[in-house]
Amino acid sequence: MNNFVSTSRLARDGGKPVFPEGPPAWPLMDPEVREALLAAYADGSWGRYHGCHTERLTEQLAEHHQLENVWLCASGTVAVEVALRGLGIGDGDEVVLAAYDFPGNFRAIEAVGARPVLVDINCETWCLDAEAVEPALETQTRAMLVSHLHGGMAAMPDLRELADRHGMAIVEDACQSPGARIGGRVAGTWGDVGVLSFGGSKLLTAGRGGAILTNRQDVYQRAKIFCERGNDAFPLSELQASVLLPQLEKLPGRNRVRAENVRRLLAQCEELELLQPLSLPDSGAQASYYKLAWKVLQRVGAPCTREGFLAAIQAEGVAIDAGFRGFGKRSARRCRRVGDLLNSKSAAEDTVLLHHPVLLQPATVIDQLAQAIGKVVDSFS
Ligand SMILES: Cc1ncc(COP(=O)(O)O)c(C=O)c1O
User: Fold this and answer.
1) Tell me, what's the pLDDT at 10?
2) Residue 198 Cα, ligand 1 centroid: separation in angstroms?
3) Positions of CATH 3.40.640.10 in the chain
C-alpha cells in the first residue's frame, strides 16, 4: 500500500479510494526501450562519450522540429542557461519571464549575469501574457524566456511579432510540451532558441537530459563553445540517446491519446465549481500534456483549501500536486517587477497539477479519474 492510500482521509471515513493501487508508473515498460538498452550493452555504445545514438538523436530532433541545429546537453535547466549564453545575454541585460514559471528559469537568467523582469501570466493559459510584455520593455531588455506550462500554450505568434518589432530574442522553453503545435509550428521553433528536457518524469525521458534547438548559427556556435571545456562539460550520453530514439517515434501518437483523454476528463469535470481548468488550445494549436492544470477556487470561509483538496485527491490514489511557487516574493534586489502580477500570485497559491501518466490509460480509467475528482469535490460541498 502506498502513502496515498494509507493517509486517506476519505478511506478513514469508510470510503474506498478510487485508485487503491495509486497512480500508474512512469516511465512505461516500452519493449523498444528494453531493446535499445540491450543493443547498447551488446555493442558497447553505452560506455562511449559520443557515437551513432547521439548523432541520430541530433538528426531526428532537427528533422522533427525542421531546424538546422540541435545541441544535446545534461538537463532542461542547463539547456535554458546554454540558450541564454548562446544568445550572448550577460551582465547589464534584462530578460523578461513570467512571474509564475519553473524556478530554474529565474536562476538561469541570474547565472548568466542578467536581471529577470517579472511579467504576469495569462490566467487561462498559465503562460506569459503577451499583452503585458510590451509595457515592461526598457532599452536593456534583450530577451524573453517563454515557457509553455501545464498544457497551456503561450501566444507565440504575438510574442514573436513583439520580439521582432523590438529587436529582442526569445528562448522558448518547451520542456513541458514536446511535440505540441502552435499555429502549425512545433513548440520550440518560434523562439530564436528552443529548449527541451528529457528528465525522469518528462514525456520523453532518459532520466536526465536536455537539448537546445536553433536555426541561428551564431547561437549554436556560442552554445558549443560554452559547453566545450576540453570535452563536453554538460553532455547527454550515448546510452541516454539510445532510449530517447524509440520514444521520439511514439511521441505524436501518445500526444494525441493524452489530448483526447484531457478532453474527455475536462468534459466530465465541467460542472465542478470548485475547480477551474486551463483553457484548451484553439483549433490552430495542439497541446502536449506533461501536466494538466486547474485552479482550486479557494474562498475565505469556504471549507476547501488547496492543501485540503490535495490531501483528499492523493488519498484517492491520484497523482495531483501543487504547482510552482512563482517569483512574486523574490526580493526587488534580484528582479524588476512589472504591474501587480495578480494572475501569477493566484496561480502560485491555487494551482493543482495532474501528472501525465494516467493520460495514456484507457477511457474507462479516465472516467474513474473524473469520478475520483468529483468525489473529492463533493466531499467539500
Ligand atoms: C518549464 C520547465 N523548464 C525547465 C525545466 C527543467 O528541466 P530539467 O528537469 O530537465 O532540468 C522544467 C522541469 O520540470 C520545466 O518544467
Assistant:
1) 44
2) 9
3) 31-247
Q: From the CB of 127, is ligand 1 less than 6 Å away?
A: no
Atom of ligand 1 nearest to the CA of 209: 10
Query: Model pTM greater than 0.90?
Result: yes
Please tell me the class of the 3-28+251-379 domain.
Answer: alpha beta
For ligand 1, say whether the CB of 210 is within 6 Å of any of its atoms. Answer: yes
Residue 45 Cβ inside 6 Å of ligand 1? The answer reads no
Give me the amino acid identity at 114. A
**Mean pLDDT, each 10-residue run in order, the chain (381 residues):** 38 71 95 98 95 98 98 98 98 98 98 98 97 98 98 97 98 98 96 98 98 98 98 97 98 97 97 92 87 90 89 97 97 97 98 98 97 94 80
Instruction: Determine the distance from the C-alpha atom of residue 21 to the mean position of all C-alpha atoms in its chain, rounded to a whole number.
Output: 26
Q: At the top level of CATH, which class does the domain 31-247 belong to?
A: alpha beta
Distance (Å) of CA 232 to CA 45, 49, 194, 237: 17, 9, 20, 10
| C-alpha of residue 115 to centroid of ligand 1, in Å | 20
| DSSP sequence for 32-66 | HHHHHHHHHHHHSGGG-SS-HHHHHHHHHHHHHHT
Q: How far is the CA of 175 from the centre of ligand 1 (A)?
A: 6
Judge contact between 152 and 323, C-beta under 8 A: no
Cβ 175 under 6 angstroms from ligand 1:
yes
Lateral strand order in the sheet of 69-73: 69-73, 210-214, 193-197, 169-173, 141-147, 94-98, 115-119, 336-337
Question: For residue 77, how far is its CA from the centre of ligand 1 (angstroms)?
Answer: 6
Q: Is 173 in the pocket of ligand 1 (CB under 6 A)?
A: yes
State whether the beta carbon of 240 lies less than 6 angstroms from ligand 1.
Answer: no
For the chain, where are the E strands, in sequence order?
69-73, 94-98, 115-119, 141-147, 169-173, 181-182, 185-186, 193-197, 210-214, 275-277, 285-286, 291-296, 320-322, 336-337, 351-355
Q: Which residue is associated with the grid cell 560554452?
A: 226
Is 147 near ligand 1, meaning CB less than 6 Å away? yes
User: What's the pLDDT score for residue 335?
Assistant: 98
Return the ligand 1 atom nearest residue 77 CA.
11
Pocket perturbation via mutation, ligand 1, pick of 97, 172, 175, 203 by most ligand atoms within 8 A of CB? 175
